[in-house]
Amino acid sequence: MKTLTVSLGERSYPIHIGDRLLGQADLIRPHISGHQVMLVSNETIAPLYLDKLMSSLDGLDVATTILPDGEQYKTLDTANTIFTRLLEQRHNRSTTLIGLGGGVVGDITGFAAACYQRGVAFIQLPTTLLAQVDSSVGGKTGVNHPLGKNMIGAFYQPQVVIADTSTLNTLDDRQLSAGIAEVIKYGLIRDAEFFDWLENNIEALLERDQAALTHAILRSCQNKAEVVAADEREGGQRALLNLGHTFGHAIETGMGYGSWLHGEAVATGMLMAAELSERCNMLERSHVERIRELLVRARLPVTPPAEISPEQFLELMSVDKKNIAGLLRLILLEDIGQSVITDSFSHEHLVSMLNDFQQV
Amino acid sequence: MKTLTVSLGERSYPIHIGDRLLGQADLIRPHISGHQVMLVSNETIAPLYLDKLMSSLDGLDVATTILPDGEQYKTLDTANTIFTRLLEQRHNRSTTLIGLGGGVVGDITGFAAACYQRGVAFIQLPTTLLAQVDSSVGGKTGVNHPLGKNMIGAFYQPQVVIADTSTLNTLDDRQLSAGIAEVIKYGLIRDAEFFDWLENNIEALLERDQAALTHAILRSCQNKAEVVAADEREGGQRALLNLGHTFGHAIETGMGYGSWLHGEAVATGMLMAAELSERCNMLERSHVERIRELLVRARLPVTPPAEISPEQFLELMSVDKKNIAGLLRLILLEDIGQSVITDSFSHEHLVSMLNDFQQV
Predict the structure, then answer these.
(1) Residue B29 near chain A (CB below 8 Å)
(2) Given CB atoms, is A236 within the 8 Å cutoff of chain B?
(3) N or C: which end of chain B has fewer CB within 10 A?
(4) Which chain B residue has the Cα nearest residue A116?
(5) Nearest of B310, B292, B308 to residue B300 by alpha carbon
(6) B37-52 b/e with 16+ CB inside 10 Å = b?
(7) Boundaries of CATH 1.20.1090.10 in chain B?
């Protein structure tokens, strides 16, 4: 087992990464201060891991909320389902909410914990690669609105994150690849050495080699933790974590939540950002090709959906959170492992990039 | 005009109190950093003050959300109405939400600001005495759930609070008295001198004497600001501000939101707390009578509704936020101006107090 501490002063918390951790009571119990626990999971994950987890919670007053599975349920209404359960079960301020599942479960559970009685304790048990490397670090919680993804939420830190790598054995191939997209992102934005490692180990990850997965998760979490520790509320450098996300969110919103997986949309979005960077003379052509090749080897999509026209892309991007006061800011690449946040790219390059993808 | 600063480190903010402040652009403009503003008010307040306020916002991109008036609309659905308006108007992270109205408008607007894109700027313009002395200080925002009041929310600080005392001229008598209940609370919990002043000036407040109102608001805000500055997230002493609220919330929930005004329920709740304190040999009988007399002179109710039985009271109080891990904690009085938070009162005294009120 590897342990990493996210340094955020009094809100610091540990991330434990390793094989078969869900059944280890000593990892979770020190972080539960009251006797009430609300365990939130979904219909896919609960049958697989709920029993194992319950053995770690023996003696506590544990209630469960089992949500339907899917991004389309990441809504304010679903959060309200959790509030209703908490109130029906008379959970007070000393309750602990535990999110067992992927990013959707984690985001909703964290948001519910942030808002219930203005904030109760929260523990995150991510069971997808995407959630283990990305949404479990950084305190971003929230739900979607029909008019925009993650538009309602809170910055809220968990007490502990436990990433049990054995849960990835039941993850389907498409979800695994979607998680790898975010892993690749860390190489691209700030860790060239890790990108090299990924080029050499991508097949091992796809084959779910436990050592390779553990290394990839640890390195991704370290990278993210360093960025978040320096910039908890996304004023500056933290925005680099959004590489590919502005384009990716446009794809997800345009296609309807749940059609493309988040990581798939981000993968395509990262290549779009790389292509735009190349047009702006920031990034060498050969680097764009290295990125495309790694994404393809990771079995990720590298072409935006033909259903979304360049005009729709521009429209969809203008309501994105990263759009400050009308000026569109994007994360672009200067090198593999070197990224910048900028609004100084020409509109023509953006449009030409979108048009070129449209004609693929 | 009087100005008070609430000291919360980087989240410190000023409270301006005085006559006809809504039209003074120089008070509000320095706190609006972007060009987008979402002004939230209700159907009662907007016709009275919206035009005056708009003159202070000249040149900005101002959208409005006008809510129906009433505590029954303080819901997650209403908060979602604001999110929808913000997204339809394409408001980004640099938008500023302004809440113009009473406590309900302030609480919902603050909660919407806390959650929209995980937090945007918020300005509070309270137009009731209750909101001016209480809900505009301390950062408590939120909405009700059918199973409990203020159960969904966030601690979130405004950029500035502007309490325009001239807005109290249009407040109906019942609302004015409800606000005075919270003013009296500050005297009771920590400011005996202020309680004496209130005994001498209660008629002036009821006659809306501007000098008396300004003094009462300032002194209340000072008291609350001192408590909040020492304990922002309600770990300890801040709980004293809840004098009368556990009983009061039970009345509000039991009677259905909007039937009793919050301040009315708190007034009765404070007398119930005083009566319980007397039974516990903490408070002299003569002090209970002074409290009852001042509340009656302020035209506030001092008897809980007969519809709620002692058993229902106990039931309703057990889901209150102040109930920690099954142990009911209450704010009791040792003297006028001296309060304690305690769970060391006998259940028998609590029940006998409830029974005695039932037989009034």
Answers:
(1) no
(2) no
(3) C
(4) B152
(5) B292
(6) bbbbbbebbbeebeeb
(7) 184-358
Sign of CA dihedral A43, A44, A49, A53: negative
Give pLDDT, residue B71: 85
* Residue A75 touches chain B, beta carbons under 8 Å: no
Q: Does B236 touch chain A (CB under 8 A)?
A: no
Rounded Cα distance, A110 and A153, in Å: 9
Whether this model's pTM surpasses 0.90: no
Residue B293 falls in the annotated catalytic set: no
Whether B234 is catalytic is yes
CA distance A117 to A92: 8
Query: For residue A112, what is the nearest residue in chain B, using CA coordinates?
Result: B152
**What SS3 state is found at A148?**
strand
Distance CA A172, CA A152 (A): 29
Q: What ipTM was predicted for this assembly?
A: 0.84
Task: Convert the pLDDT of each residue in A193-246 to its tens digit.
Answer: 999 999 999 999 999 998 999 999 999 999 998 888 777 666 678 889 999 999
Say which of A31, A215, A245, A279 is annotated catalytic. Answer: A245
Between the two ends of chain B, the Cα-to-Cα distance in Å is 45
Give ranges for CATH 1.20.1090.10 in chain A. 173-222+231-358
Mean pLDDT of the A127-143 span: 90
Interface of B with A in 299-358 (CB under 8 A): 318-319, 321, 323-326
Please name the CATH architecture into which domain A2-170 falls: 3-Layer(aba) Sandwich (3.40)
pLDDT-wise least confident of A37-46, A188-197, B198-207, B321-330: B321-330
B245 part of the active site: yes
Overall average pLDDT of the A101-112 stretch: 96
Region(s) of chain B under CATH 3.40.50.1970: 2-170
| Contact call for B117 and A321, based on CB within 8 A | yes
Does A94 contact B at CB distance below 8 Å? yes
| Per-residue tokens: A255 | 């296609």
Identify the CATH class of A173-222+231-358. Answer: mainly alpha
| Average pLDDT in chain B | 93
Tell me: the pLDDT tens digits for B305-315? 999 999 999 98
Residue B256: per-residue pLDDT: 83
| Span B71-127, pLDDT tens digits | 899 999 999 999 999 999 999 999 999 999 999 999 999 999 999 999 999 999 999
Confidence band, pLDDT 50/70/90 cuts, at residue A319: low
Which position among B118, B233, B281, B347 bears the catalytic label?
B118
The DSSP annotation for A17-60 comes to EETT-TT-HHHHGGG--SSEEEEEEETTTHHHHHHHHHHHTTTS
Q: Give contacts of B11 with chain A, Cβ < 8 Å.
A: none
CATH number among 1.10.110.30, 1.20.1090.10, 1.10.760.10, 3.30.70.20, domain B184-358:
1.20.1090.10
Q: B106 in contact with A at a CB cutoff of 8 Å?
A: no
The string of pLDDT tens digits covering residues A71-80 is 899 999 999 9
